[in-house]
Amino acid sequence: MTLTIKNLAYTAICVGMLSSCTGGTQTNNGGLDDIPDSLTGAPLQLSENVVNDMIQNISSPVEMANQIKNSGAGFDQSVLNSADRMKDYDTSFKRALNLGAYSADLGYINTFNKNTVVVSYLLAVKELADGLNVGQFLDFNTLSRLAKNSTNLDSLKLLSVSSFNEMDRYLREQKRANVSTAIVAGAWVEGIYITCRVIEQTNDKDLILRLGEQKDIVNILLIILNNYRQDANFAKLVGTVEDLKKIYDDVKVTTEFGEPETKEIDGMLIIEQNAITHVDITPEQVSRIIEQVKVIRQFIVE
Fold it and tell me: Do residues 133 and 24 make contact, with C-beta atoms less than 8 angstroms apart?
């Protein structure tokens, strides 16, 4: 497993955004103040570099979707959060969580090239991004061009990270870093939820190992989320993730690092740290993890 390939937490948000999502950003501010900024007086002050490093280590829902496809599992629309629910997300907390969730859904949809399904999810992502006043940071035309060609995946990932670095910087400047945290959390949970549903159907060993690897990710996510725990919305989310962490505590994950490799992407030299992760997880632990992921996901989409 190559660590930099699993690092791109935001990729799913960009992969599905095709040309139907072009246009300007709305100036609707409804609900933008329902998550009071939690950086002021937060128990743990996190620097931008620290948060970026943690975010980049959260597993990419796009990569997870590719592994689902490689497992031989077919496309199952029933595992997605219904795009019709978008209109019910009228607070910035729910908009941010489900901007992430729908983006993970888009990663799954586009991995299976389901063009007949994608339109409603593209519209949902656009409406939520505009409702949060962050849609201007997504270059829909360029992302559309790259997303239509699977050979451009590396370039797409780089552009995705660049776009969301700008979005994250803007949110921090506006004292809305908690919004970006909610987006990341929603994307990760939805990606893992889809994986869990496929595991229930296929019992695929590779996906089970990937599920076990999420132990470290849960710990990272909790560090970020706990910084906003004084907000009631985040407190509820943190509680559900803490319950998941307790299950993961008994899962053993070790990593063996190899020699780093270099490659060139669009004229840029990229260094990738190769690593092999070993996971010791029991069927009972898998079942308990799956059930708790369902609880967290229900909190997000309800």
Answer: no
- The first and second tokens of residue 35, run together, are 């998550």
Handedness of CA 130, 136, 138, 139 (dihedral sign): positive
Q: What is the pLDDT of residues 237-251, one digit of tens each?
A: 999 999 999 999 999
Query: Where do we find the tokens 């497993």?
Result: 1
Q: Which residues of 4-41 are buried (b: 16+ CB within 10 A; e: fewer)?
A: ebbbbbbbbbbbbbbeebeeebeeeeebbeebebbeee
Q: How far apart are CA 142 and CA 145, in angstroms?
A: 5
Q: Both tokens of residue 58?
A: 């959260």
Stretch (H or E) spanning 216: helix 205-226
pTM: 0.76
Beta bridge partners of 280: 252
**Of 253, 246, 295, nearest to 278 (Cα)?**
253
Q: Where are the domains of the chain?
A: 3-301
57-93 residue pLDDT tens: 555 666 777 788 888 888 999 999 999 999 999 999 9
